[in-house]
Amino acid sequence: MTGRHPGGPEVFGPVDPPARLLMGPGPVNADPRVLRALSAPLVGQFDPVMTGYMNETMVLYRQVFRTGNEATFLVDGTSRAGIEAALVSLITPGDRVLVPSFGRFGQLLCEIAERCGAEVHAIEAPWGEVFTPDQIEAAVVAVRPKVLAIVQGDTSTTMCQPLEEIGGICRQHGVLLYSDVTASLGGNAFEMDAWGLDAVTAGLQKCLSGPSGSAPISLSDRAVEIVRARSSVEAGIRGDDRVLPPPARIRSNYFDLGMILDYWGPRRLNHHTEATSMLYAARECARILVEEGLEAAVERHRLHGAAMLAGVQGLGLEPFGDLGHKMHNIVGVQIPDGIDGDAVRGELLESFGVEIGTSFGPLHGRIWRIGTMGYNARTDAVLETLTVFERVLRIHGVSVPAGGGVEGAQAVYACAGT
Ligand SMILES: Cc1ncc(COP(=O)(O)O)c(C=O)c1O
Questions:
Q1: Which residues, given as ranges, of the chain have pLDDT below 50?
Q2: E-assigned strands of 58-151?
Q3: Are residues 271 and 396 in the same domain?
Q4: What was the pLDDT predicted at 3?
Q5: Which of 10, 12, 204, 394 counts the highest number of beta carbons within 10 A?
Q6: CA 115 – CA 96 distance, rounded (Å)
Q7: Residue 153's closest CA among 186, 178, 183?
């Protein structure tokens, strides 16, 4: 609504978004508890209440990442802010970085590492597949990188790369292991310490049931050492800290993890102004996950993901990719020949308020992506999506078995006794 007076300011009504069921690759609907946390009153950034919340957030994310790393905190910004902070702080221009890439977000790691001045070596798996540990070890031996950067769950292809053995390979060859777990954390098993990762970053908008805008991060002591050697405290707050010349110093001020750690750690040195409301949200996301229990959350995502998969198969549709390595929280569905995938998505959204996704690059227009994650990994959300999906497919001329989607999903729930 626009109330425009001639020559006067342009005024709009308050935001009043329609009800949507977000069943795409993320963002998903935020848990109402997170929305309530977002509306809590602000406090100052050095108020003991605020620094207390910061400390609690660190404790909570250590449990979420399954790590004892002291350096576990938040980067303000969306998930790619966390990726960029990790890579720009770990990579010195000229360092060799190996990226085993199996989708769009592997390509993003290459792009960011290149911008950090790395000599990037990418190996590619066909979209819809993942790497074996042997393939990764062979590339490590050939490239001898300083950092191996890999996505755990690449939402663009729905594949989940097993990481269990990669940490051991990296340790053996003296390589730092970084992973982007934005899309998989909370919905698929992840063990930072047991699997030997040095750096990990995430986001809130997938299995953590929050909005995008905060990037939880954790660094091993080895990674902190590298960051500290390149970090430089800025003028104005510098005490007797040494000053590094530009080539040695981390190229970004905002993403200098050493300075961010000095803000989160006992020095409490001023850096950015912490995004208070997003910190409340991130803290609540972790609280929800830790209360539920990590194993229980992963099992919930496994169950509802399996129900959605059985549902799309019950509609006679073909899932995409290697199902043995599918992320629990998302399924790719091949768009039947002759069907306009975007028109189906548009109708789902406009007529039924249900959002599903398409994909990128070679998969754009070839697959839909349906998520069951975070707050939406629930029976009613799965059954509602399958019900309206069947209706819209029919409208668009796809011949689907009546009730086949809901029946397929319900068979999975019945088997699980839920
Ligand atoms: C695996 C993965 N990494 C990174 C991102 C980028 O996240 P953001 O848009 O929050 O920066 C996404 C977003 O979908 C993702 O799925």
A1: 1-2
A2: 71-76, 96-101, 119-124, 147-151
A3: no
A4: 54
A5: 204
A6: 13
A7: 183
Residue 5: inside a domain, yes or no? Answer: no
The atom number, within ligand 1, closest to the CA of 83 reads 4
The atom number, within ligand 1, closest to the CA of 156 reads 16
Residue 158 CB less than 6 A away from ligand 1: no
Number of domains in the chain: 2
Tally of CB atoms within 10 A around 343: 12
Can you give the residue range of the structural domain that contains 379?
294-416
For ligand 1, the distance from its centroid to the CA atom of residue 183, given in whole angstroms, is 7
- Ligand 1 atom closest to the Cα of residue 212 is 10
pLDDT at 1: 46
Q: Which helix or strand (DSSP H or E) is residue 330 part of?
A: strand 330-334
Do 216 and 302 sit in the same domain of this protein? no
CA atoms within 13 A on the CB side of 333: 31
CATH of the domain at 362: 3.90.1150.10
Q: For residue 109, give both structure tokens.
A: 């790691």
Same domain, 154 and 173: yes
* pLDDT at residue 302, rounded to an integer: 98
Nearby residues of 189 by Cβ (< 8 Å), 6 or more positions away:
298
- Say yes or no: 216 and 299 in one domain: no
Q: Give pLDDT, residue 69.
A: 98
What type of residue sits at position 203?
Answer: G
Residue 27 lies in a domain: no
Q: Which residues of 8-41 are buried (b: 16+ CB within 10 A; e: fewer)?
A: eeeeeeeeeeeeebbbbbbbbbbbebbeebbeee
212 in ligand 1 pocket by Cβ < 6 Å?
Answer: yes
Residue 208 CB less than 6 A away from ligand 1? no
**Residue to mutate (ligand 1; options 101, 155, 190, 330; most atoms within 8 A of CB):** 155
Question: Which are the contacts of 327, defined by CB distance < 8 A and separation ≥ 6?
Answer: 153, 155, 158, 159, 160, 183, 184, 187, 188, 305
pLDDT tens per residue, range 75-118: 999 999 999 999 999 999 999 999 999 999 999 999 999 999 99
Residue 163 structure tokens: 């990481």
Q: What is the pLDDT of residues 222-252, one digit of tens each?
A: 999 999 999 888 888 888 888 888 778 999 9
Q: What is the pLDDT of residue 89?
A: 98
Give me the residue label for tokens 């207390």.
52
d(CA 319, CA 292): 30
User: Contact at 8 Å (CB) between 187 and 297?
Assistant: yes
